[in-house]
Amino acid sequence: MYLPLKEMIITRRTIQPHDVEMEILFCGICHSDLHQIKNDFGGTQFPIVPGHEIVGRVSAIGNHVSKFKVGDLAAVGCIVDSCGHCEYCQEGIEQFCDEGATYSFNSIDKVSGGYTFGGFSKMYVCNEKYVLKMPQFDDLAAAAPLLCAGITVYSPLKHWQAGPGKKVGVIGIGGLGHIAIKIAKALGAYVVVFTTSPEKVEDAKRLGADEAVLSKDTEQMKQYNRQLHFIIDTVSAKHDVNSYLNLLRHDGALVLVGLPPQQLEVGAFNIVQGRRSFAGSNIGGIAETQEMLDFCAQQNITAEIEKINIQDINSAFERLEKNDVKYRFVIDMSSLKSYDRF
Ligand code: NAP
Ligand code: ZN
After folding, report:
1. What are the structural domains of the chain?
2. Which pTM value belongs to this model?
3. Segment 232-290, tens digit of pLDDT
4. Is 259's C-beta closer than 6 angstroms to any atom of ligand 1?
5. What spacing in Å lies between the alpha carbon of 251 and ligand 2's midpoint?
6. Does the Cβ of 283 fall within 6 Å of ligand 1?
7. Is residue 257 within 6 Å of ligand 1 at its C-beta?
8. Minimal-distance CA residue to ligand 1 atom 15
9. Contact assessment for residue 185 and residue 162, using Cβ atoms and an 8 Å cutoff
């Protein structure tokens, strides 16, 4: 249960010397936005403005900005600040910053002292270091989900070396899962997807999967025992990971990117047998996000989207909660203009 979203007036911080202000054109709706408005993890600060798959056009820049000029296409994902000097920031994995990364919404903004507000809004302002350059995409709206869903699956696929000769499993065909299929295929892996939704079995093949399995079918599941090198688990709710750990080859890894609010149980024998790993991964750093955007533009990878107006936000969240979206909602922010008092 959560309160419906409604319009409100927010102010962005004054543009700092290294800040970029952008007019938001499109913003994706990620299941993490839904978790946050439901306060699934505790700690949500209300009022909240969700949205962290942000694509826009630069509308103003601070005096010292060198990476962008007014009129450039630009994008913001999950991270909008970090300490910059800890070993993780130095390594370009700002998502693990020692002082805690500042997220694009529901985080304390170190400059203003207030909470960050996300991309379901007209404008965004943050330091140019955390703003991505948007390569050429045929459909800019469909590229917005790459800013979270794209990097969240790209980073572990690269880290665990998905590629030719590797059999990769994808659990859950939602926003993250459907992009994982496309990126894993583009990296050269053989892709097997596992879905709870019968109607997605055929669709998975259209999205590029080599094989699609209805996970409720235990007989079919058994055929994949000890077959997969790597599995990426994008499921947003509590589920049995042990039945998937059994599908890993020796030294294989099941990597959780989904964030079920409840604890998951892992059986000792499911990982001890075969020296398997049960791992996790959190979005990706800024440099890797840029690499992913460039890779997706070159490979012509975007999300399958349903574009909505901001006025439809509450029904979109209801449908996302019911697993009724193929495969990502993206808000056309020009619809915000109809609120003439903003
Ligand atoms: P989504 O579009 O709702 O997709 C989740 C998919 O999981 C669904 O399409 C469904 O796939 C499957 N699923 C849902 N409920 C299930 C259940 N009870 N049992 C089994 N399968 C179920 O969500 P998303 O935006 O892709 O996000 C997925 C998760 O990743 C969320 O928890 C989100 O918060 C998290 N996330 C994590 C990171 C990170 O950095 N780690 C970043 C972004 C998002 P089928 O219909 O195919 O079964
Ligand atoms: Zn997200």
Report:
1. 19-148+304-335 (3.90.180.10), 149-280 (3.40.50.720)
2. 0.98
3. 999 999 999 999 999 999 999 999 999 999 999 999 999 999 999 999 999 999 999 99
4. yes
5. 29
6. yes
7. yes
8. 237
9. no
